[in-house]
From TrEMBL:
Protein family per UniProt: Belongs to the histone deacetylase family.
GO terms assigned for molecular function: histone deacetylase activity; hydrolase activity
Protein name per its UniProtKB record: Histone deacetylase
Residue stretches making up the Histone deacetylase domain: 21-289
One Pfam family matching this protein: Hist_deacetyl
Keyword rRNA-binding: no
Domain of life: Bacteria
Classification of source organism: Bacteria, Pseudomonadati, Bacteroidota, Sphingobacteriia, Sphingobacteriales
PANTHER family: HISTONE DEACETYLASE 12 (PTHR10625:SF19), HISTONE DEACETYLASE HDAC1-RELATED (PTHR10625)
Keywords, ordered alphabetically: Hydrolase
GO biological process, one term: epigenetic regulation of gene expression
Origin species: Mucilaginibacter psychrotolerans
Length: 300
């Protein structure tokens, strides 16, 4: 079965204006349970991330401002919502969930975080609804604990993983790959090890051709012993922030390309959900659930 980090805390502490997109964190597990793809025993609630592990990735001064709720108003506006103790706890649990998923993936091949994908958080800043970078924290944890020596981060959210790129800009053991809308947020981009910026309006055929032409060779070249996959569904044509034109079938095919490479090469993979902002919550949930459906076909 699939192992999924989940906590109802993910969905509740956001201000009213941000409540709608966060409903997916409740609805995705509910749909997977309904379909019988998972059982209650496959869901786990992460503990709170410990400070030493967090500080492998984020600057101490920045973390203390988050912890003490003293982040300047300008920096809070950059994140996109007012700071609160619940929000900080939420981010800590998300990051720990990704770490826990890494352990499971190493043993069983794949694990998911129903939240996560907080890739706009840099070492000393938060941005775009991201305060702590869950996959970067987990990658540094794997390296520091000696569990992995070479890591590939595959970020297919429609927005560039600028925080992830900044965090690992001087870390040769982590290769960052981001394929994103070139003219979309963030408008000041960092430099990943490999960036593929896409024009607005790209649909299934062109997107999938680029991905098929990139992923196998990249994995063969880098030979990672662990892969992080950020599977944002804001690439959908229905997404109000995405500017691309993928169908749900195209988005599912994207997931199949990435996860098939991981499965066939025997490389453990941790998957975080990332963004999704289609007006109809059903489209968001269905597209995210497709990622789990593909994994169920390949791994179970």
């Amino acid at each position: 079965m699939l192992r999924i980090a989940y906590s109802a805390l993910y969905a509740h502490p956001l201000p009213p204006g941000h409540r709608f997109p966060m409903l997916k964190y409740e609805l995705i597990p509910a749909q997977l349970l309904h379909e019988g793809l998972i059982g209650e025993e496959d869901l786990f609630v992460p503990a709170i991330l410990d400070e030493p592990t967090l500080l492998l990735t984020h600057d101490k001064a920045y973390w203390e401002q988050l912890r003490d709720l003293s982040l300047p108003p300008k920096e809070q506006r950059r994140i996109g919502f007012p700071l609160s103790a619940q929000l900080v706890e939420r981010e800590l649990r998300i990051a720990q969930g990704t770490i826990d998923g890494c352990h499971y993936a190493i043993e069983h091949g794949i694990a998911f975080n129903v939240a996560g994908g907080t890739h706009h958080a840099g070492s000393n800043w938060g941005e775009g609804f991201c305060m702590l970078n869950d996959q970067a924290i987990a990658a540094n944890y794997l390296l520091s604990s000696g569990l992995c020596k070479s890591i590939l981060i595959v970020d297919l959210d429609v927005h560039q993983g600028n925080g992830t790129a900044q965090i690992f800009q001087n870390e040769p053991r982590v290769f960052t790959f981001s394929m994103h809308g070139e003219k979309n947020f963030p408008f000041r981009k960092e430099r990943s090890d490999l960036d593929i910026g896409l024009d607005d309006g790209i649909g299934d055929e062109e997107y999938l051709a680029i991905l098929k032409d990139t992923i196998p060779g990249l994995i063969a070249q880098q030979r990672p012993d662990f892969i992080f996959y950020l599977s944002g569904v804001d690439v959908l044509g229905s997404d109000k922030l995405g500017k691309l034109a993928l169908s749900k079938a195209g988005c599912k095919a994207r997931d199949r390309i990435v996860l098939t490479e991981c499965k066939d090469r025997g490389i453990p993979v941790q998957v975080s959900m990332g963004g999704g902002y289609s007006p109809d919550i059903k489209d968001i949930v269905d597209a995210h659930c497709n990622t789990f459906r593909v994994a169920d076909e390949l791994y179970c």
